[in-house]
Specification:
Length: 496
């Protein structure tokens, strides 16, 4: 089939079907939007008019032979894959599918410790064992970056039976590494390189951006097309290249973990986003970079505030320019304080941590929006200078994320994981957070966003981790996984 990048075959099919005006005797029950409550009619009418299901002519995500297949083939051509699968459950289902199709019970998977919770969930569901690579901390920023190719080599040499290496690149703050050397090492050992590139769907479309994981040689890459590009929320893609992966097994697993009633508007938004990047991706990104430059070029005017920049001393390879991590160099305001002040001025940020407030630009951001944020930052900067000395500085020495410094032994997550869900277990106690050092976590603690667990069930709680959790809790962080939403107590055990 001759592919035409100018088309959006799935979206076109939905629009043709809508134009025909056929009467719906199938799900969904809103009947092309005609059953909508009037309260939300103006908001939902247009999108529900193409909210169809697997009827004649609209193909089937779980067995695509028509317009969905064509849309996925165009996406593979656009992003540089041999085959692409559309996802309607975000990168979460892509990560689950890669792990469940690669690992069985007892298999080893080498991975970073600072992974998204979906990766740990995938390991637990598969029954595999995790070997965590040493984390690499960027001394300049205090943030945990990626891992080194040397550490990957050491891990594969020590555990040659491992099925694959699973990496996250970039991290939430845009720190990224060129994975070419790592891919070469992994393949020399005859293993798979799987990459969670949720925040890097735009990589490779402009010379000012880092290289994509696929171009570096990864076997499979998961991208949240909705995060940095223009698909609807939950729209993502799983890209595969080469012959090392069992694609039929991936298809079977995707059919198990994805809804049997996938959202056609989300699928169509993936198709439309792909067309946008295929036809004018470079120019689209160029426009967004102009907005980024507008803000970054004025950062020198700030006296107290600063923007994270990549330098020669950075421990990572490159920084996504669209990620703007703001901090108070005086140590007066935490990232949560910055978030509160920025949002009071009408600019909503992506996330905060003890040190940084992260503003996420994208190719869709405008220069006018960047100017607005700059004015907000100048106001906050002046406030810090005038009144900062009257405030008690937060404990900056305790805001650094504890990180893994050595290659871990194989960790079996399922046993400890399931133990954390036993109702009324006599071995689990709600322990005051100040007293948890030396105990073992009996629940997962996930600051959200970004959704990266700082503790998983069975993990020993160090003094440094206890102090870090106290800072998070007292700073007003939001948590998933923990029984106590404010994290004043933590479920813990004496033994793992």
């Amino acid at each position: 089939m001759l592919l035409n990048p100018e088309t959006a075959p799935l979206l076109d099919a939905l629009l043709r079907h809508r134009a025909r005006g056929d009467i719906s005797f199938h799900v969904p029950g809103h009947k092309n939007g005609q059953g909508l409550d009037q309260y939300g009619d103006k908001v939902f009418r247009q999108i529900m008019a193409i909210d169809y299901t697997e009827i004649t002519g609209l193909d089937d995500l779980h067995h695509p032979t028509g317009v969905i297949r064509e849309a996925q083939e165009l996406a593979a051509d656009c992003f540089g894959a041999d085959e692409t699968f559309f996802l309607v459950g975000g990168s979460t289902v892509g990560n689950l599918a890669l792990i469940l199709s690669t690992c069985a019970a007892g298999d080893l998977l080498i991975l970073q410790r600072n992974v998204h919770k979906s990766v740990l969930n995938g390991i637990a569901l598969s029954g595999a064992k995790a070997v965590f690579l040493p984390s690499r901390q960027d001394e300049e920023s205090g943030l945990v970056a990626g891992v080194t190719s040397e550490d990957v080599h050491t891990a594969l040499k020590r555990y040659p039976e491992a099925k694959a290496v699973f990496l996250t690149n970039p991290n939430y703050y845009g720190m990224t590494d060129n994975l070419t050397q790592t891919a070469r090492i992994v393949h020399d050992f005859g293993k798979l390189l799987l990459v969670d590139e949720a925040h890097g769907a735009h990589f490779g479309f402009h010379p000012a951006l880092p290289a994509s994981a696929l171009s570096c040689g990864a076997d499979a890459v998961v991208q949240s097309t909705h995060k940095m590009l223009t698909a609807m929320t939950m729209g993502a893609m799983l890209h595969v290249q080469g012959q090392r992966l069992d694609r039929e097994r991936i298809k079977r697993v995707l059919s198990a973990v994805q809804s049997s009633s996938p959202s056609y508007p989300i699928l169509a938004s993936l198709d439309l986003c792909r067309r946008q990047m295929h036809v004018k991706g470079h120019d689209f990104i160029e426009a967004g970079l102009a907005a980024v430059h507008e803000l970054r070029s004025k950062a020198a005017n700030y006296q107290a505030l600063c923007i994270l920049e990549h330098t020669l001393s950075s421990s990572y390879g490159a920084l996504d320019p669209f990620k703007i991590a703001l901090s108070d160099r005086t140590g007066t305001l935490s990232g949560y304080d910055l978030q509160e002040r920025i949002e009071k001025s009408g600019c909503m940020v992506e996330l905060a941590d003890p040190l940084y407030a992260l503003c996420l630009f994208s190719p869709a951001s405008t220069v006018e929006e960047a100017k607005r944020l700059h004015q907000v930052m100048m106001k906050i900067d002046a406030e810090i200078q005038h009144s900062g000395k009257e405030k008690q500085p937060f404990l900056a020495n305790k805001t650094i994320t504890p990180f893994l410094t050595e290659l871990s032994p194989p960790v079996s997550l399922p046993q400890s994981w399931l133990a954390s869900f036993k109702a009324g277990s006599d071995q689990e106690y709600a322990v005051p957070l100040e007293q948890v050092a030396g105990l073992y976590a009996a629940e997962m603690v996930i600051p959200y966003p970004p959704g990266i667990p700082v503790l998983y069930p069975g993990e020993r709680i160090s003094v440094q981790m206890r102090d870090y959790l106290l800072v998070l809790a007292k700073s007003g962080a939001r948590f998933q996984g923990a029984q106590c939403p404010q994290l004043t107590t933590l479920l813990a055990t004496v033994q793992p």
